[in-house]
Amino acid sequence: MNLYRYLQAAFSPDAAKTKWSLLAYAFFAVSLNWFVNSTTAWLDAVSPFGKYTLPAALLVAAILVLAVTNRPRPRTSDLAEDVPEPHRGLIVQLSIYNDTSPWSRDKILERINVIATAPDTALRSAQCRELRTMVLASNWGSMWAAAEHHATALEKCVVVCSAEARKDFELAEMLIQTICPKAGVKEAVLSNANSVKDAFAEVSEVYRGEIPNWNMTPGDFIADFTGGTAAMSAGMVMAAMVAGQKLEYLRQEGNRRLANKDGNGDWQARSEEDIRTARLLARIQTPRRVAFQLIVD
């Protein structure tokens, strides 16, 4: 009964690959039998071991092939994390601004406008520090931290957002360009922020279709998968891993938050140097072959 079910499954229309594998095996077995029978007399003449020579050679070859193709797989625990170097390109996620954040959208926009019209550098710097605290204390803190970390090299930033969060893109663009005035900012809008498939397709298109148009390569970019929905993060991670590209994320467990209240109840943000020293921003890169293994397994 088990043999019948196996053969039924193997030769079903949905199992074309298995069917061709069995046919190829049958052809190989018939061919090998013919070859052995045809060369037996010759082997008896040229080798003291006669007909045992060919099977022994095939056995050794099979062992070598298995040894090469079944070498130990890389362990996921071997994937190292380190602080990323500043990159020319950055892909970040944008979620809807949380209205329960200490400062509203209007307050952030007001501070951006003050910075833009500040008459001197000292005032502009003071206002930037206050804006930084406001954003780091919100759910957009990871986006600010990523842009700030790569600011010295950043030329292009892709903001992946849902259709709902798109209304906040202009504000996010202004924040990023406050940190990196020369960086171009582009949106990548998902039709469904809760679909891994949509996020995977959109980020993959950024790697394949968008980046080459900017005279850059996918290797110039790093993707930060912090700040969006779980599905957005999963899709971005899969797209970057399949493309063999770099990933980063922001650690915020325990006391590793970007901003905290002090004893007086005032918000205090971590400095850029403190974020780097505490290794809050971690880079991950995995070879494409390992990525396929992780996804399939």
Any overview of this molecule?
By secondary structure, the chain is of the alpha/beta class. The protein folds into 2 domains: 2-71, no CATH class; 78-296, Hypothetical protein VC1899 like domain (Restriction endonuclease-like) (Rossmann fold, 3-Layer(aba) Sandwich), CATH 3.40.50. The protein has 11 helices and 8 strands. The chain has helices at 2-10, 16-46, 53-69, 105-116, 121-136, 141-149, 169-179, 196-210, 230-242, 272-277, 288-296; strands at residues 89-94, 156-162, 184-190, 221-224, 246-250, 259-261, 267-269, 281-284. A 6-stranded mixed beta sheet has the order 3-2-1-4-5-8, sandwiched between helices. Strands 6-7 form a two-stranded antiparallel ribbon. Strand 6 and strand 7 (267-269) form a beta hairpin.
